[in-house]
Amino acid sequence: MPKNKKRNAPHRGGGGGGGSGAATSAATAGGPHRTVQPFSDEDASIETMSHCSGYSDPSSFAEDGPEVLDEEGTQEDLEYKLKGLIDLTLDKSAKTRQAALEGVKNALSSKVLYEFVLERRMTLTDSIERCLKKGKSDEQRAAAALASVLCIQLGPGLESEEILKTLGPILKKIICDGTASIQARQTCATCFGVCCFIATDDITELYSTLECLESIFSKAYVKEKDNSVLSSTSNTVLHISSLLAWTLLLTICPISEVKKKLELHFHKLPSLLSCDDVNMRIAAGESLALLFELARGMESDFFYEDIDSLTQMLRALATDGNKHRAKVDKRKQRSVFRDVLRAVEERDFPTETVKFGPERMYIDSWVKKHTYDTFKEVLGSGLQYHLQTNEFLRNVFELGPPVMLDAATLKTMKISRFERHLYNSAAFKARTKARSKCRDKRADVGEFF
């Protein structure tokens, strides 16, 4: 049967065609949720597809993302599909709500839709609030992730402040709820930090968020009398996210508050370097490097009392060769701690270059690196597009106003999927050939001896 006829066929137990009313009534009636395949090129126009097929399967949008629409559709197609997904965030099915939240999040991560989001911010906030309160672990994670992207879209201002006032208490409750899912608490901790970084205009609210986050990660500290290795637990991922969100907020605090936090945590953070979880060791090491940078920014002659023992610990991690650890983890750890050790000993930072479109951004400090890493975690591959067009992020990284490019220039810069495939294939062949030559040389040396 042709695809378009399949798509317009009536639902089981339902009435007629595919109008939006029919889709809604089917969902509210509690009927089985049927997966609808994403529409193809032959029936991609709004006139030839039913309302139901346009957005009754939010998972298709979550998987494909707006990239397909960029290449084959229009802005109107994207907004039309997003309206349907926003409606589905209120569906009775938890799976449908979760997939709809993820679909909206993926779209807003990859496109800047300020006007569209501004008009629907109340609806989106209500949906997120409901999913955070009544949803289970995965749904809460999807709702918190969407809240972060929503604030990034709107930037600092009254709208984002209203979102934080509405969602902040709920996020805080989930983070501190020992009975809630660890994964949900972890995502909420990141979301709370990002939203507060963007939206908070009240210094007391900022301090309250800092205290909430440090009450979580400080539980991972090794007690002074206990010199054993810190073992990872199911809460370790939550401690990591809370520590990184706390460090992000510390970068926007007044100097007086930064000094208080440094005095409180500078001598406790090194205990996390002994954790048997590589991600915790890395998070603690990078946080320490950032704290040193902040401290020396306030006092050029800043002196750390236990500098010898700290550098000894950092040097051991930078040259770690323990056989019981995975090679990938050791390689990643050594790379990070070489930079951390250099920051502590020599006050140096290895400058990194980030390319996006025709522009370049230089990451030349730990503060900038940590901020970049946080937004990369939230936006994923969509960060490059946001760096080009999102005024808030461009202000954060001091990039100036967006660079205006004409359509012809953008078209020449864009690489098609086929060209990407060819490029990746050629690169793979080149790497394989180089490895083969290297192996041949080692074989010759072995035979010679």
From TrEMBL:
Pfam families: IFRD (PF05004), IFRD_C (PF04836). Residues 22-31 have a biased composition (Low complexity). It comes from the Eukaryota. Residues 1-42 are annotated as: Disordered. Residues 12-21 have a biased composition (Gly residues). Residues 1-10 have a biased composition (Basic residues). This is Interferon-related developmental regulator 1 isoform X1. It comes from Microtus ochrogaster. The lineage of its organism: Eukaryota, Metazoa, Chordata, Craniata, Vertebrata.
